[in-house]
Write a structure and sequence with these properties.
Radius of gyration of chain A: 23 Å
Number of helices of chain B: 8
Helix content of chain A: 25-40%
Number of domains of chain A: 2
Oligomer: heterodimer
Order of helices and strands of chain B: HHHHHHHH
Structural class of chain A: alpha+beta
Strand content of chain A: 25-35%
Number of strands of chain A: 6
Distance between the termini of chain A: 63 Å
CATH class of the largest domain in chain A: Mainly Beta
Largest sheet of chain A: 5 strands, mixed, barrel
CATH topology of the largest domain in chain A: OB fold (Dihydrolipoamide Acetyltransferase, E2P)
Strand content of chain B: under 5%
CATH architecture of the largest domain in chain A: Beta Barrel
CATH superfamily of the largest domain in chain A: Nucleic acid-binding proteins
Helix content of chain B: over 70%
Radius of gyration of chain B: 20 Å
Distance between the termini of chain B: 24 Å
Largest sheet of chain B: none
Number of strands of chain B: 0
């Protein structure tokens, strides 16, 4: 490789490394804020103000879903298997909302420590399989 | 292959082959994915959008890496054809990135319950889309094509730093987007009858990229060499 080309190569490598470094700095500075939601444990530690709109997320605890018969009110518990958070919501739940499935809710913390959600989003996991396979796995449990 | 007339003649021969393989692979993959493969136990039929969504995402990112490599070659060796290749690939990559955003949005509404959310995966993909737009815009603002190639080459090398962020965003942060189904370290968390058609779709998308890149590049070559003797000979006889 002739000297001029070698020089250009070094310049480009410097640009690439600089850009990677800059991106890494931005990303690590944003670190906490890049998370879409708080888990129940982080929620407890973070000491969140009651009237701030935030997102919380975790798994829906089995057997915790209580649906009202007269209205669209629903309450359920979100857990990260260490701490739990009670969610109150009024509205239609997404199709994938289920026990033991991931969920992200937006709203604010009430004075009673429960979470008042104005929006419930279902989180999908990375598993895909046909219903027959899912049944087989369920039966094995 | 580096010289424009050689490339032009050689590419006329491979274009039909690229077109045919693209057509065969895509029709096989899409048909298999949409009609033959089983429904998902949780999502039902909605999941089938991944046969478009996932290949578009992979293409959007790998085309950018391809462009950065072209940029590298263009700056160091001043190979004209690599600059043209970079320019020809940009609109294709941008289209795939738009496609991944749109299909993801269409899938997100029924599955998550929202069209859009500002989580790390979605936001970083949107940034990639804007970088593509910036590359194309920058190229068209510089009159001298050789200088434009060089500027865009450097921008593509700077921009490639976004790719690892997109890739790792679902692992580094809590996002609404699910983590990768396919990883190098463990077996895929998807049944074979679902991922085989996906693999064929992905190959088809890559062939489509090769096909459309060749077509774009031929246009670019003709446009830049229009005053040269070989172009005049080819088109005036």
């Amino acid at each position: 490789m002739n000297p001029i080309r070698k020089q250009r190569l070094y310049a480009l490598i410097a640009i690439l490394l600089g850009s990677l470094l800059a991106t890494w700095l931005v990303v690590s500075a944003l670190s906490e804020n890049m998370n879409l939601f708080y888990s129940p444990t982080e929620m407890k530690e973070a000491n969140i103000n009651q009237d701030v709109l935030i997102r919380a997320g975790g798994m829906v605890k089995p057997g915790s879903i209580i649906k009202s018969k007269e209205s669209l009110n629903v309450s359920f518990i979100v857990t990260d298997y260490q701490n739990e958070l009670v969610i109150n919501y009024q509205g239609i739940l997404p199709d994938l909302f289920a026990e033991n499935a991931g969920v992200v809710v937006r709203g604010n913390l009430g004075s009673d420590g429960n979470f008042n959600a104005i929006e419930v989003l279902a989180k999908h996991d990375e598993n895909y399989m046909p219903p027959e396979v899912a049944k087989l796995i369920d039966n094995k449990k | 292959m580096g010289s424009p007339p050689l490339f032009y003649n050689w590419s006329s021969k491979i274009i039909p082959w690229l077109g045919i393989t693209t057509l065969v692979l895509l029709s096989l993959g899409i048909y298999w994915g949409l009609f033959v493969s089983p429904i998902d136990y949780k999502q039902g039929d909605v999941y089938r959008i991944l046969y478009i969504h996932v290949p578009s995402a992979i293409l959007g990112e790998s085309i950018f890496i391809f462009m950065a490599i072209c940029g590298f070659i263009n700056v160091i060796w001043r190979a004209k054809i690599s600059g043209m290749m970079l320019k020809a690939a940009a609109p294709i990559g941008m289209s795939f990135t738009l496609l991944v955003l749109v299909t993801g949005s269409v899938w997100g509404k029924p599955t998550w319950g929202t069209w859009w959310v500002w989580d790390a995966r979605l936001t970083s993909t949107l940034i990639l889309f804007f970088i593509y737009a910036a590359l194309i815009g920058l190229h068209s603002t510089i009159e001298d094509k050789t200088k434009a190639d060089r500027a865009v080459s450097i921008l593509s090398i700077v921009g490639v730093a976004i790719i690892p962020v997109i890739k790792k965003s679902v692992d580094w942060w809590q996002t609404l987007h699910q983590p990768s189904t396919f990883t190098i370290t463990s077996s895929p968390s998807m049944s074979p009858e679902m991922y085989l058609p996906l693999l064929i779709c992905l190959l088809g998308f890559y062939m489509f990229f090769a096909f459309s890149l060749t077509l774009n590049l031929r246009n670019e070559v003709l446009d830049r060499e229009r005053s040269k003797a070989w172009v005049k000979q080819n088109f005036n006889s």
